[in-house]
Design brief:
Length: 300
């Protein structure tokens, strides 16, 4: 990956905060494959994603678990999924683990009392939990930011901390469909970005193959699709509005890091993103955003 000499670049680091850098007004983690920002705008994008999936699928959890006593969210990000589950299962202990410092608010709301956020690098060390600790383990949007060997290590660690009979649920995004002409330009840049970091974008369709067959059985697979329309109000089609906000938010999160890597100038990236926005307004068939859900039960 190129250096960041073309961006407004600053590194910060101390014991409790991972090293970060500024790229065109957005903050990113330094020296890790993760390509998305770590700032308030990115948390809002993740909150929109969580709301979108909850609306489309009708639930934040698809695994067939009636009354879990312990739940883990790996790479909790904005914390919105963990907060949802803590509210749905008030008797359960809900833990979240992420490389960022723990937060005490989620989407403007105080944490539920049964929520605990823990800071750790999940790819640099074993998960800080005993064997068979959780009834449910949830992973969302992590395969696309982890090199394959680290992803498989994480799956084995996930199996270790899941109880026999417990469930692991993985949610990953597939490649958008019915995209616009300008999106093809942006997609070429993001493909270069992900390749430079050794990760695969949009791995959703193949995510079910991650589970070791010797440890997991009873796989249940689901798929959600939502059209990304931006010419409708939230009153007339709230799901489409959420999808559009999430879709454009993803482009805006990746744009600065694409520009800082010299795949395109900042001005060109901004122009293409605005072109995509305009094309969505007149698209006869809007792009669709698809997420793939795979839930598997640990049996050994």
């Amino acid at each position: 990956m190129s250096d960041y000499s073309t961006s407004e670049y600053r590194e910060t680091a101390n014991v409790s905060h991972p090293s970060t850098m500024m790229c065109f007004g957005r903050r990113y983690l330094a020296s890790v494959p993760y390509p998305f920002p770590v700032d308030e705008r990115e948390e809002q994008r993740q909150n929109f994603q969580n709301k979108l999936l909850r609306e489309v699928m009708g639930s934040s959890l698809l695994s067939p678990v009636a009354a879990p006593s312990s739940i883990l969210d790996i790479g909790y990000g904005s914390g919105s999924w963990a907060q949802d589950l803590a509210g749905k299962f008030p008797e359960a202990h809900v833990a979240g683990i992420d490389i960022l410092p723990p937060k005490d608010m989620v989407d403007g709301n105080a944490l539920h009392e049964n929520t605990e956020f823990i800071q750790a690098d999940i790819f640099d060390e074993k998960l800080p939990f005993a064997d068979e600790s959780f009834d449910v383990v949830h992973i969302r949007s992590m395969a696309a930011v982890a090199p394959p060997h680290l992803w498989q290590d994480l799956i084995w660690e996930t199996a270790r901390v899941t109880k026999i009979g417990g469930w692991v649920e993985i949610v990953e995004e597939g490649k958008p469909q019915n995209t616009t002409p300008s999106y093809a330009i942006f997609d070429e840049w993001q493909q270069k970005l992900f390749a430079a970091r050794g990760v695969q974008p949009f791995p959703g369709a193949s995510i079910g193959s991650s589970f070791p067959e010797t440890l997991f059985a009873s796989q249940k697979r689901y798929k959600s699709s939502a059209a990304a329309r931006i010419d409708v109000s939230s009153e007339s089609d709230p799901v489409a509005a959420l999808a559009a906000t999430y879709f454009m938010g993803t482009l805006e999160s990746l744009g600065p890091i694409i520009a800082s890597c010299d795949f395109a100038s900042e001005r060109e990236v901004r122009r293409v993103i605005e072109s995509i926005r305009s094309e969505l307004l007149s698209a006869a068939v809007p792009p669709s955003i698809t997420h793939f859900f795979t839930a598997a039960q640990r049996v050994a």
